[in-house]
TrEMBL record:
Stretches the record annotates as Disordered: 1-73, 88-121
Family label: Belongs to the methyltransferase superfamily. LaeA methyltransferase family.
Compositional bias ranges of the Basic and acidic residues kind: 1-18, 27-54
Top-rank taxon: Eukaryota
Biased composition (Polar residues): 100-118
MF terms in GO: methyltransferase activity
Organism in which the protein naturally occurs: Coniochaeta pulveracea
CDD domains: AdoMet_MTases (cd02440)
Protein name: Methyltransferase domain-containing protein
Family annotation (Pfam families): Methyltransf_23
InterPro entries: SAM-dependent_MTases_sf (IPR029063)
């Protein structure tokens, strides 16, 4: 069982309860630690090595050789494993002139240079001139056949705090208002579906950083804890810690996985002897007011040679053609970025992660940009399925985040927001609007200690 240096233990178990500090702050409160996970399927990767944890590999690849039955919660692994085509990557398949070789279905590629200037909110075309690898299906409706919308399963949740209710949804009370999404059962199901989208995008992998035999892993903004739980299954020798503002993780977790309530922008108070091999963050771009502070904290608490990885949407929705022009979705997207900025958040932060990590002292910093279709408009069964899942994810989450940003950031009336969302939802479901989400994967390594070479793989 995993022991926590930061929490008192009684009878092998610590419940997450608010501390008695006068400020009411909750720091490193453990949700659950010692409840052994009941028999459940292991999140096996698409490609596995013969020896667990051997050699260089990306996250979730070749980590566990045990064979177990698949359950409904891991349906995304089957879908990811059967995808025949490569995930579209920005800038792939270009000719010498820098254009995509696909009969003109996509736009010319960009130079791929890092930009640090602020985007003009009056236009969402800053990154539109890239090759996506997606091509428009002219007969999208009939090609979908009997493809069904994804269904998310749920697991036992901890009801530890009395949450804040707003617009008919519940939100975290600790650091109230910092995170814009709710934490109720509907949102927990959406978060698990969102995890499925990313697993399909990455062909069953949990990340892209070339980690080696990780023994201590930190998942910031863990949500339902599904990523941390999957990682703990794939790397049974690793101690995995997930932190979040909401204690909504399952009661039953692997013995090497636990969760704490914490704010990643606060000072990290882990003991000096506790260092991580891998720090992971997914879809946290609008959560932080100071991304560089989080990067600095991660660098300080990584072991030499350890990795930090961001996985984030670029908030400006992209389109392969002009079919989004003049739509309610385009208007919504402009207001979304503008409202977030007025609330003090850098909604376009992902394009600056690489530069921030390099400035902080990370080495081998790599930026990869993948694309997720907004609905089932592209050609190909695999891309249609990915788009359908993402459409469901988008539709399930758009109301809550819009209400928060548009009413608090832009001062719009709730009724006005509701009317706008009617048209926005129609655009999201419209297969004639060829939009997609540009998704950044940025990872970097803490420099090795002087005089020491690269750690040998286990």
């Amino acid at each position: 069982m995993l022991n926590s240096p930061d929490a008192d233990r009684q009878d092998g178990k610590t419940k997450a309860e608010p501390t008695s500090e006068a400020s009411g702050a909750v720091r490193h409160v453990e949700v659950d630690q010692d409840k052994q996970l009941e028999e459940r399927p292991s999140a096996e990767p698409q490609v596995r090595s013969d020896k667990a944890g051997s050699g260089d590999h990306t996250v979730g690849e070749g980590a566990n050789d045990e064979s177990t039955e698949e359950g409904p919660r891991y349906a995304y692994l089957e879908a990811a494993a059967t995808m025949a085509s490569d995930t579209p990557r920005v800038g792939m398949g270009e000719d010498e002139a820098g254009h995509q070789r696909n009969n003109g279905d996509t736009l010319p590629t960009s130079t791929g240079q890092q930009t640090n200037d602020n985007s003009d909110l009056s236009s969402l075309s800053a990154l539109s001139h890239i090759s996506t690898g997606l091509s428009v299906d002219s007969d999208a409706d009939s090609a979908m056949g009997d493809m069904a919308s994804p269904m998310s399963t749920t697991s036992l949740r901890s009801s530890i705090y009395e949450f804040v209710e707003e617009h008919g949804r519940t939100f975290h009370r600790y650091k109230e208002g910092k995170y814009w999404m709710p934490n109720d059962q509907l949102e927990q199901e959406r978060l698990d579906l969102q995890h499925s989208v990313f697993m399909m995008l990455l062909k069953g992998r949990l990340g892209l950083a070339p980690i080696q035999n990780p023994q201590s892993v930190l998942d910031l903004g863990t949500g339902t804890g599904i990523w941390a739980i999957d990682f703990a299954h794939l790397y049974p020798t690793a101690e995995v810690l997930g932190t979040d503002l909401s204690p909504i993780q399952p009661d039953y977790v692997p013995a090497n996985c636990r969760f704490e309530v914490d704010d990643a922008e606060d000072d990290w108070i882990y003991s000096p002897s506790r260092k991580f091999d891998y720090v992971h963050l997914r879809l946290m771009f609008h959560t932080f007011t100071n991304h560089r502070r989080v990067i600095d904290s991660a660098l300080e608490h990584l072991r030499p040679g350890g990795w930090m990885e961001w996985q984030d949407y670029y908030a400006e929705i992209q389109c392969v053609d002009d079919t989004m022009k003049g739509t309610a979705l385009e208007r919504w997207n402009k207001l979304y970025v503008e409202g977030g900025k007025k609330l003090g958040r850098d909604m376009l932060a992902p394009r600056r992660y690489k530069g921030m990590m390099e400035a902080a002292g990370f080495t081998n910093v790599t930026e990869e940009r993948l694309v997720i279709p907004g609905n089932a408009w592209p050609r190909g069964k695999d891309q249609k399925k990915l788009g359908l899942w993402q459409m469901t994810n988008f539709l399930d989450g758009i109301h809550a985040v819009t209400m928060t940003i548009f009413t608090k950031g832009l001062g719009m009336a709730r009724e006005e927001v509701e009317l706008l969302l009617v048209d926005v939802r129609n655009d999201i479901k419209n297969l004639g609007v060829h939009f997609y989400f540009l998704t950044y994967f940025v990872y970097g390594q803490k420099p090795e200690a002087k005089g020491k070479g690269k750690r040998a793989a286990a």
